[in-house]
Design a protein that fits this description.
heterotetramer; A alpha/beta; B alpha/beta; C alpha/beta; D alpha/beta; A: alpha/beta; four-stranded parallel beta sheet; 4 helices; B: alpha/beta; Fumarate Reductase Iron-sulfur Protein, Chain B, domain 2; 3 domains; five-stranded mixed beta sheet; three-stranded antiparallel beta sheet; 12 helices; 30% helix; globular
C-alpha cells in the first residue's frame, strides 16, 4: 500500500453505510474502508498514528449527534474529535486531513457528495503535511 | 539566611503535626539551586523543610502514592500535609476532580509566595563557562558564590520564572487548607505584568507548515526519557500507560526515537492531558533537552478555556471537560 | 577491515512437526539451519523471532543432531503468532545462548530434576540427554508438579519415562481433582525423607549427597520452598542448580534487562548454582 | 609519540579534513534550543570549547538513540537512516571524563560477543580529547580517579596553553592522522606538555565542589543493600530515564520490530532505562525490581559495585550529568557519601 496517499475511512455499522462507502472503492483505489461499531469507539490516538505514518487522510463516517443509535455516545466523541483536530492544528498539521462526515439514513446522497468533495480537495492540495 | 516564610511554615507544622501525620515538603539537596521533595514522618525532621524562591517542584504528582488505586482512600491513619505554592493548588484541585485523590485526609499548607527562580535564566546570567557553588536569596537579590569563589549578585526580577510574571496572586480552594503569611499583603500587589489573555502564543505567530517545521525541529531533540510524563500530575495512568508497550499487545507507538515518533509521543500525551493540564510548567522546567514545551501546553490550556470554557484546577467539581457535553455545540 | 559478524542476525529454521501439548503450550520441531554453533547443551536457549513480532528467549526441550524441539507457551503477541504457524513455516533462530546445565560436572552422579509447571520444558532436554548417554550417569529422578491435570505436558513421553531403567518419575498436581488418584500438593513433598511411602523416598538410591545433582526450574515461590526443603535435609547448596527466567532481549549480555547483581543471566546463566544465587541480590 | 604546539588558526588544519561531504565533525556548540550540545559542525568557529561539558554526552554518535540491527527484506533499507553509518566521523572536544566513559563503553560492547553496530561506528571514529578547564558544580571526576588535565583514552589529546594548543599523539590512528596534516607544525617537548597538564589539573580540581575518597568502599557497596538511606532518595525519585539517558556509560537498550509492510521492516534497538517500570518485567508478570527504591539502588550499585566485581573498574567517570539533569535534585555524590557513612568509613 503506497503510504503517501492512502485514505482510511472508518465507517459506522449502522444503515448499511459500509456498503455505501465501499462502493466508492472502485473510484478511489487508495481508499481503505474499516467498519467500526460506532465512530465514538475510535480512540483518536489511532488517528494520530495513522496520520503521522500510514495514511494521508482519515475520514470518519458516523451518525449525526442527535440521531445516533447509541443516543449519547456520539456527543462525547464529538468533543473528542474536536480535541483531536485541535491537537493536529496545535502541532501545525492540516486538521482538514481528519474529516468527519455526519450522516443519517435519509442523507446518503449528501454523504457521497461530501465524500467526493473531500477526495477532490485531497487531489488538489499536494502533500504539505510535512510528515 | 533568614527566610521568614519557611520559619513560619515550620512553626505552623510543629504546632499542628500529630502522632502519625505525614508532611510532604521539600528539603535542600547538595545541588545548588534545586530542592528535593521529602516525606517527613516525625517532628524532629521538620527543621529540614525549605520553601520560597527555590520551591520549583509541584508536589501534587507525589500525592497519588498515598491513595489506594482501587478506592482512592488514603493509606495513612493521620493527616497528609502538603506544602504548596498557590499555583500548585490548581494541580491538587484537578487531581481531586480527576478522582486520583480524595481530600478528606489531606491538608494543604499554602504560603505567601513571591515567585520562583528560573534556573535557566540564572545559568544565562552567570555565563556558560562558570557554575554556582552556593546560591541564596537576600530580599530582592540573589547572592551567589561561583566555583572559583568569586561572589555575584543578580536582581530577582532578572531570574524570576516567567510563569510568576503572570501570577494574579489568587487561588481558590474548597478543601481544608491553611495560608501561612499575610494573605492580604500578598494579594495586594499581583505581578500580572503580562496578563494571560493577551499572551501571544507560537500558534498565533506561525501556522501550518512552518509551525510544524519548528515544532518538528524542537521535538527532534527529545530523547524520550519520559521525564515530562512522570512529572505531570495530569498523566496518571501510571502502570498501564500506552507508551509501556508490554501492557498493550499492539503498541500505538514504537519505541523508535526518531523525529516522527517524538512528535507522535507528544501529540498523544497532550491529547490525553489537555483537559486536565493546569499549565504548571513542570514539564518544560525539567526537560533535559531544554525543549520549550510551553509552545504546546499554553495553546491547549487556552483552547480549553476558550472553546469548552473549562479551566483545569479551578474547581474540584466532578465536571470533566471531555466527559461532559452540551447539546447543539456542533464543534466539529 | 574484517566484516564484524552481526550477532543479532537470525537464521531461519523450518518447522518439521508441531504438537499441541496442552491448552497453552505447543511444541515445534525445528530443523537446525547451518551456521548454528554446535554442540548445543541441555539448558541452553535460543532467541526465536518473527519479523514484525519481535523475539523471545525459549529453552531447548530436546537436542538431536538435525533437529531441535521447542515448547512455547502462549503468553504474548510474539508467542501468539508462533502458535498460528504450521509445518513448513519458518521461524527466526539465533543462539545457542547461556551456559546450560552442568552436564560434564555431573558425570556418574544421580540427577534429580524438580520441574514446576512449564519448568519441565527446559528439563526435558536433560531427560533426553540422560537417555542417550545413560552410561555417564547413575540414576535419574524426575519430580514434576503441574498446576492441574489438564496442564500436564509430554503425556506420551511420560509413559515411556516410567518404564526406563534406573529412572523414577513422580507427578503431582496442586489441588485434588475429581477423577485424579495420583499425588496432590507441591513437588517439594517428595523431598522430605519422612514421606508416607518410605520405598518411594527420593534418596534411598544414594545417601551420599556429593553423588547427587539437583536441577530446579519453576516459579519464584516454588524455588523458595525447594530451598527450604533442601536446607532441612542439609543438602549442599553447590550441588543445586536453578535455571532463571529473567526478562531478556539481546541474549548476549549487552541490553541489561537480565542483569541481577553482577551476573548477566543470559551470559553467565541462565543456570546458576544455589550457592551463587545466595550471594546475588534477590532480583531475579 | 610526538607532541606539537599549534596556534588557534592551525586548529583549522587539524579539523578541516572532517568537514567534507562523506565525513562529519562532531563538537560542542550552541544548539537552537540554547543549550551546549554535541552537534554536527558546519564551520570551525561554531565550536564552543570554553564551557562546561554538554549536558547530553556524545554517546548518541557511537550508540544512537535508535539504530536498526536487522533488516527484513534487505532489498530496501528501512526508514531509519542507514543503519551503520559508514561515514568517517571525528568526535572533538571530549573531556577526560567522557574519554574514560568511551573507553568503558568500548570494552563493554566488544567483550564476550562483540556488538557489530557499536564496534563498526567506533572503528569509523577518530576521538580528539581536550583538557578540562571549565568544570560544573556537579563534577566529581577526581573522586573517580580521573585527572581533568590528562587522559590516555583518546586518539589525539589537546592541552590548551594560553592561545595555543599542545597536541599529543596517543594512538596509532592519531599518529597516522597527524602525520598527514602536521606539515610545518612546531614540536613541543614532553616537559612543557606535562607541566601544562599538571597546571590545568591543579586549577580545575581546586574548582570542584568536593572530592570523595571512595577507595575504602570500592567493591563493598553491596553491603548497603538493606540500609535505609536509600529511602531518602527513592521517595523523591520520579523514575524518569533522564539520568540514565544522559549518562555516558549507560548502555541498556530495548529491541523491537518496526514494519512498513508484512515482510519489509527492521528490528531496531533504542535506549532503555533501568528506572522504567517494565524494564525487568517477566512474561509471568513477576517483576523483581518493582519499587522505585529497587531501581534507584540498581542504577547506583551497577555503576559502583557490579562492574567493579565483573570488569574490575567503575562504570562511572564522575562527569556529574546525572546530578545536573535530575528534576528533583537527587545527587549521586551525596548517595555515595551516605553509603560511606553507612559502611562506617
Amino acid at each position: 500500500m503506497d503510504r503517501t496517499n492512502t485514505v482510511i475511512a472508518f465507517v459506522c455499522q449502522a444503515d448499511k453505510r459500509k456498503k455505501l462507502i465501499s462502493s466508492l472503492k472502485s473510484k478511489y483505489p487508495a481508499l481503505r474502508v474499516i467498519p467500526v461499531i460506532c465512530i465514538g469507539k475510535l480512540n483518536p490516538v489511532i488517528i494520530f498514528r495513522l496520520l503521522m505514518k500510514e495514511a494521508r487522510a482519515v475520514i470518519l463516517v458516523g451518525c449525526e449527534p442527535s440521531d445516533c443509535h447509541f443516543r449519547e455516545g456520539v456527543f462525547f466523541s464529538e468533543r473528542r474529535f474536536f480535541l483531536a483536530k485541535e491537537v493536529l492544528k496545535g502541532f501545525g498539521l492540516n486538521d482538514r486531513l481528519l474529516n468527519i462526515i455526519w450522516s443519517n439514513p435519509g442523507k446518503d446522497a449528501l454523504v457521497l457528495k461530501q465524500f467526493e468533495t473531500f477526495m477532490q480537495y485531497l487531489k488538489e492540495t499536494q502533500i504539505e503535511k510535512g510528515a | 539566611m533568614i527566610n521568614e516564610i519557611r520559619d513560619a511554615i515550620i512553626q505552623y507544622l510543629k504546632s499542628v503535626m500529630k502522632e502519625n501525620d505525614v508532611v510532604l515538603a521539600l528539603r535542600s539537596s547538595s545541588t545548588p539551586g534545586i530542592l528535593t521533595p521529602c516525606i517527613l514522618r516525625n517532628k524532629a525532621d521538620l527543621d529540614q523543610i525549605e520553601a520560597g524562591f527555590f520551591h520549583l517542584n509541584n508536589l501534587a504528582v507525589y500525592l497519588s502514592e498515598f491513595f489506594q488505586k482501587e478506592n482512592r482512600l488514603s493509606t495513612l491513619q493521620g493527616y497528609l500535609y502538603v506544602l504548596c505554592k498557590p499555583c500548585d493548588t490548581k494541580a491538587v484541585t484537578q487531581m481531586i476532580s480527576d478522582q486520583q485523590i480524595n481530600p478528606n485526609k489531606l491538608k494543604l499548607v499554602v504560603y505567601a509566595c513571591e515567585g520562583m527562580a528560573d534556573m535557566k535564566k540564572v545559568k544565562n546570567e552567570i555565563g556558560l563557562d562558570k557554575d554556582i557553588k552556593a546560591i541564596d536569596l537576600h530580599l530582592t537579590e540573589l547572592s551567589l558564590t561561583l566555583l572559583d569563589g568569586s561572589p555575584l549578585s543578580i536582581p530577582v526580577s532578572k531570574v524570576i520564572s516567567s510563569k510568576c510574571l503572570e501570577c494574579n496572586k489568587e487561588y481558590h480552594l474548597t478543601m481544608s487548607h491553611v495560608f501561612v503569611g499575610d494573605e492580604k499583603k500578598w494579594k495586594s500587589h499581583p505581578y500580572s505584568i503580562a496578563t494571560a489573555e493577551n499572551k501571544v502564543l507560537l500558534q498565533d505567530q506561525k501556522k501550518g507548515k512552518d509551525l510544524f517545521d519548528q515544532l518538528k525541529a524542537e521535538l527532534s531533540a527529545c530523547i524520550r526519557c519520559n521525564a515530562c510524563r512522570n512529572v505531570c500530575h495530569a498523566c496518571f495512568c501510571s502502570d498501564r500507560c500506552i507508551f509501556d508497550k508490554p501492557k498493550m499487545t499492539v503498541g500505538f507507538l514504537d519505541k523508535e526515537i526518531s523525529p516522527i515518533d517524538n512528535i507522535l509521543f507528544h501529540m498523544i500525551r497532550f491529547y490525553h492531558v489537555a483537559p486536565n493540564c493546569t499549565a504548571c510548567g513542570e514539564c518544560e522546567r525539567i526537560c533535559p533537552q531544554g525543549i520549550p514545551l510551553s509552545h504546546l501546553y499554553e495553546y491547549f490550556h487556552r483552547l480549553m478555556q476558550e472553546s469548552l470554557d473549562f479551566s483545569a484546577g479551578s474547581s474540584d467539581s466532578m465536571r470533566q471537560a471531555m466527559l461532559s457535553y452540551r447539546l447543539g455545540e456542533d464543534l466539529v | 577491515m574484517n566484516k564484524i559478524v552481526n550477532p543479532y542476525q537470525p537464521s531461519y529454521a523450518e518447522i518439521i512437526q508441531t504438537k499441541q501439548e496442552n491448552s497453552s503450550i505447543k511444541s515445534f520441531l525445528l530443523e537446525i539451519p547451518e551456521g548454528i554453533q554446535k554442540p548445543i547443551m541441555p539448558g541452553q536457549f535460543f532467541q526465536l523471532s518473527l519479523p514484525g513480532y519481535g523475539e523471545a528467549p525459549i529453552s531447548v526441550s530436546e537436542i538431536n543432531d538435525k533437529t531441535l524441539l521447542f515448547c512455547i507457551a502462549n503468553m504474548g503477541s510474539f508467542t501468539n503468532k508462533v502458535h498460528s504457524l504450521g509445518v513448513g513455516d519458518k521461524i527466526g533462530l539465533r543462539g545457542p545462548y547461556g551456559n546450560g546445565f552442568p552436564i560434564s560436572a555431573s558425570s556418574n552422579s544421580n540427577l534429580v530434576l524438580l520441574a514446576g509447571g512449564i519448568g519441565l520444558v527446559p528439563l526435558r532436554s536433560v531427560v533426553s540427554y540422560f537417555f542417550h548417554h545413560q552410561e555417564n550417569f547413575k540414576n535419574l529422578e524426575i519430580l514434576y508438579g503441574a498446576k492441574s491435570s489438564n496442564d500436564i505436558i509430554y503425556r506420551d513421553d511420560v509413559k515411556q519415562w516410567r518404564h526406563k531403567p534406573n529412572t523414577i518419575f513422580k507427578l503431582t498436581i496442586d489441588k485434588p481433582e475429581k477423577d485424579w488418584n495420583g499425588n496432590t500438593g507441591f513437588v517439594t513433598q517428595f523431598l522430605n525423607p519422612q514421606s508416607s511411602d518410605p520405598s518411594e523416598v527420593l534418596f534411598h538410591l544414594d545417601k551420599d549427597f556429593s553423588q547427587t545433582k539437583v536441577f530446579v526450574v519453576g516459579p519464584p515461590m516454588m524455588l523458595n520452598s525447594v530451598y527450604q526443603a533442601l536446607t532441612n535435609i542439609n543438602f549442599p547448596p553447590e550441588h543445586v542448580f536453578v535455571s532463571l527466567e529473567n526478562r531478556m532481549k539481546c541474549g548476549i549480555g549487552k541490553c541489561g534487562h537480565c542483569n541481577a547483581g553482577s551476573q548477566y543471566v543470559c551470559l553467565d546463566g541462565p543456570v546458576f548454582s544455589w550457592k551463587t544465587l545466595q550471594s546475588m541480590p534477590n532480583e531475579y | 609519540m610526538k607532541t606539537y604546539q599549534i596556534s588557534k588558526s592551525q586548529l583549522k588544519q587539524l579539523l578541516e579534513p572532517y568537514l567534507t561531504a562523506e565525513t562529519q565533525l562532531i563538537a560542542p556548540s550552541l544548539n537552537p534550543l540554547g543549550l551546549i550540545s554535541f552537534n554536527k559542525i558546519q564551520n570551525i568557529n561554531e565550536i564552543a570549547l570554553n564551557t562546561s561539558i554538554p549536558l547530553k554526552p556524545s554517546k548518541s554518535y557511537l550508540f544512537p538513540e535508535s539504530s536498526s540491527l536487522v533488516q527484513f527484506d534487505e532489498k530496501n533499507p528501512h526508514l531509519l537512516e542507514s543503519d551503520i553509518s559508514q561515514k568517517k566521523q571525528m568526535l572533538f572536544g571530549l573531556r577526560p571524563c567522557d574519554l574514560a566513559a568511551i573507553a568503558y563503553m568500548d570494552s563493554f560492547f566488544s567483550s564476550n560477543i562483540s556488538d557489530h553496530d557499536y564496534v563498526q561506528r567506533r572503528n569509523n571514529t577518530l576521538i580528539l580529547g581536550v583538557a578540562c578547564e571549565y568544570p560544573s558544580n556537579a563534577c566529581f571526576c577526581t573522586s573517580m580517579g580521573i585527572q581533568p588535565g590528562t587522559s590516555i583514552h583518546a586518539d589525539i589529546f589537546l592541552v590548551p596553553s594560553g592561545e595555543d594548543f599542545l597536541v599529543e599523539e596517543l594512538s596509532e590512528k592519531g599518529q597516522e592522522y597527524l602525520a598527514s596534516i602536521s606539515k610545518g607544525w612546531k614540536e613541543a617537548s614532553n616537559e612543557t606538555l606535562a607541566t601544562q597538564k599538571n597546571e590545568i589539573t591543579e586549577k580545575t580540581s581546586s574548582k570542584l565542589i568536593e572530592k570523595i575518597d571512595l577507595s575504602k568502599i570500592r567493591g563493598r557497596l553491596s553491603e548497603t543493600y538493606n540500609k535505609d538511606f536509600w529511602n531518602k532518595y527513592s521517595e523523591a525519585c520520579i523514575v524518569c530515564g533522564a539520568c540514565t539517558f544522559d549518562c555516558p556509560t549507560c548502555s541498556c537498550f530495548d529491541m523491537n520490530d518496526s514494519m512498513i509492510s508484512s515482510s519489509k521492516g527492521c528490528r531496531y534497538r533504542s535506549w532503555d532505562s533501568c528506572s522504567f517500570a517494565d524494564f525487568t518485567l517477566h512474561a509471568s508478570s513477576h517483576n523483581p525490581r518493582s519499587s522505585k527504591l529497587h531501581r534507584l539502588r540498581q542504577r547506583i550499585l551497577h555503576k559502583f559495585q557490579y562492574t567493579v566485581e565483573k570488569m574490575d573498574q567503575w562504570s562511572c567517570t564522575g562527569c556529574g550529568r546525572c546530578i545536573r539533569v535530575c528534576p528533583v535534585g537527587i545527587n549521586t555524590r551525596s548517595i555515595l557519601k551516605d553509603a560511606k557513612e553507612a559502611l562506617g568509613e
